[in-house]
Amino acid sequence: MAKQYDVLFRLLLIGDSGVGKTCLLCRFTDNEFHPSHISTIGVDFKMKTIDVDGIKVRIQIWDTAGQERYQTITKQYYRRAQGIFLVYDITSERSYQHIMKWASDVDEYAPDGVQKILIGNKADEEHKRQVGKHQGMKLAEEYGMDFYETSACTNYNIKESFTRLTELVLMAHRKELDGLRLASNDELNLAELEEDGRKADGTANSKSCWC
Amino acid sequence: MAVGLEDEPGFEVITCQVELGERPVIQRQAPVSEQEWESYINSEGQVMNVDGLKKRIFSGGLCPGLRKDAWKYLLGYYPWDSTAEDRKSLLRRKTDEYFRMKLQWKSVSEDQEKRNSLLRGYRSLIERDVSRTDRNNKFYEGNDNPGLCLLNDALMTYCMYNFDLGYVQGMSDLLSPILYVMQNEVDAFWCFTGFMEMVHHNFEESQESMKRQLSQLNLLLRVLDPALCDFLDSKESGNLSCCFRWLLIWFKREFSFQDILLLWEVLWTGLPCPNFHLLVACGILDLEREALMNSDYGFNEILKHINELTMKMSVEDILCRAEALNQQLAHCQELPLNIKELLGKAEVKSPAPSTDTASPPQPLSPSQVHELDLTDSVSPSQPDSSIEILPTEDTTTSQSLSP
């Protein structure tokens, strides 16, 4: 049986409520857009396989509830992720201001070496814009992240941003990937690898938790 | 009851094996009709035999035409013993009170709001959620539907009613069916506050109540279905966080809109026991146990499976299962005390039940229940009586190549 993918890993979408995390995800995985999508309660995920430089990458993308108090639930997923999208809404200054908080949560809960990019979504709503593109770029630069303005509505920069984060994760795991090229029949499960790595060095003190 | 404490390094589990006896067959009854409802009302307009009526609502629900009236009683807006005259003056008072609170947020100027980040935050969350609540329902579809404005205004007014809690995601899901049934802003608001009295703990900042309910659900499942419980534990899903959405908004996203109307009126009766909503959750898990266990599901697939049950279940079936489980537990002679307390079946008086919920969760003593850990635990686990599964450490697997 032909293998279905070469590499598997997890990405995570975080950011304030209503910035369009679920819409970004649906546009990317199903090429659908529902302007009145229901809000996310708890967590959910979708899968998609993409081809990056000849490598078949299976990505599992986790979508989270945006309101802060539900982080009790959602932050469990941070450390399972190899890449994180920090999303704000260009029509909401508040959601942009909060990126600082989201970024510090990532520092606290995500594994070292997790790859991050900044997304300013709803770029189609120019008439309601509150956050300039340069502000996004500046913030991304401060944090050393790549930056994309996107629109799930018009399908602008969706594939580009998801592919970019995927590439960053692949680059960060170059060593494992080189191994993969030598033994090309194997599949590399970065998600599992990270978890086993933590178990091996004794840092995975998970009680009956969901990670 | 056999309590077995397996003491393997890094693996510790308590099993409760209780003889439950055969599961009874439950038949749902026909909904309470308007004629039947009338038979409970005396000449003063007071409801007689409230307990009998609640039992009927529990076992059959209400016919749609009755909901508008009956929900006001179930949600504590109308006292059961109020006369028609009482209700007239209550309505006047509550209408005034509502519009007074509504005026409070309506009269905040743009300039004032700039200096009120809390109010600004609530407003923005509400706007975002109103635009994505039940938009397929006729009452909320389209962009200029008056239903959207009513939903928005009642939620904003709730922020004034309970500014400490304010607006938290999920509340719009709770108000939407009530507003749909009431077709009236003031009535819907006061019924909503009644519902919130029962569930406001779910939305609190600390999320302690949600954590407690998930661990209570785990306790119940351990008695009702230890095999399923062990299976979920082995897949790192034992803390049942996959059921978070069920408990937060009382299954609102799991059933069709019409089914939710029935489910909620049944739950609002407070029958047949406290925390019956947890047995509803057990009923769903019971329905799905084969699908979950006879598969090679891992953590991800279990979550996916649970999330995708939405709109696929029959509420009548689930209610029958939940009631059957309740009867099994009620007839069980050797039920652990903490389960008895949880379901109000203990004869001993439990300490200080909270006064502000219709069916208060019974406090469980710390030695009886271990709060399942929803946070990243930072310290190695302490050996105690907690339900606790540590992943088996496999230090040899430095790279895991999936098959």
From TrEMBL, chain A:
* Cofactor(s) required for function per UniProt: Mg(2+)
Where do the coiled-coil regions begin and end? none
Q: Which UniProt keywords apply?
A: Cell membrane, GTP-binding, Hydrolase, Lipoprotein, Magnesium, Membrane, Metal-binding, Methylation, Nucleotide-binding, Prenylation, Protein transport, Transport
Q: What is its main location?
A: membrane
What GO annotations for molecular function exist for this entry?
A: G protein activity; GTP binding; metal ion binding
What's an example GO cellular component term for this entry? plasma membrane
What are the subcellular locations of this protein?
Cell membrane
User: Could you say which EC number(s) this protein's record lists?
Assistant: 3.6.5.2
| EC main group | hydrolase
Q: Which reaction does it catalyse?
A: GTP + H2O = GDP + phosphate + H(+)
Tell me what topology the record assigns in the membrane. Answer: Lipid-anchor
Tell me the domain of life.
Eukaryota
Q: Work out whether the entry's keyword set contains Magnesium.
A: yes
List this protein's GO terms for biological process.
protein transport; Rab protein signal transduction
Which one Pfam family would you cite for this protein? Answer: Ras
PANTHER family per the record? LD44762P
NCBIfam families linked: small_GTP
Summarize the protein's role: The small GTPases Rab are key regulators of intracellular membrane trafficking, from the formation of transport vesicles to their fusion with membranes. Rabs cycle between an inactive GDP-bound form and an active GTP-bound form that is able to recruit to membranes different sets of downstream effectors directly responsible for vesicle formation, movement, tethering and fusion. RAB15 may act in concert with RAB3A in regulating aspects of synaptic vesicle membrane flow within the nerve terminal.
What does the subunit comment say? The GTP bound form of RAB15 interacts with REP15. Interacts (GTP-bound form) with MICAL1, MICAL3, MICALCL, EHBP1 and EHBP1L1.
**Would you identify the family this protein belongs to, as annotated?**
Belongs to the small GTPase superfamily. Rab family.
- Could you tell me what this protein is called? Ras-related protein Rab-15
Specify the species.
Engystomops pustulosus (Tungara frog)
TrEMBL record, chain B:
Per UniProt, the keywords (alphabetical) are: Acetylation, Cytoplasm, GTPase activation, Phosphoprotein
From start to end residue, where is composition biased (Low complexity)? 350-359
For this entry, the protein name equals TBC1 domain family member 15
What does UniProt give as GO cellular component? Answer: cytoplasm
Q: Which organism is it from?
A: Engystomops pustulosus (Tungara frog)
InterPro entries xrefs = Rab-GAP-TBC_dom, Rab-GAP_TBC_sf
Where in or outside the cell it occurs: the entry states: Cytoplasm
PANTHER family reported for this sequence: TBC1 DOMAIN FAMILY MEMBER 17, TBC1 DOMAIN FAMILY MEMBER GTPASE-ACTIVATING PROTEIN
Q: Which domain of life is it from?
A: Eukaryota
- Role: Acts as a GTPase activating protein for RAB7A. Does not act on RAB4, RAB5 or RAB6.
Kindly list the GO molecular function terms attached to this UniProt entry: GTPase activator activity
In this chain, the stretch annotated as Disordered covers 348-403
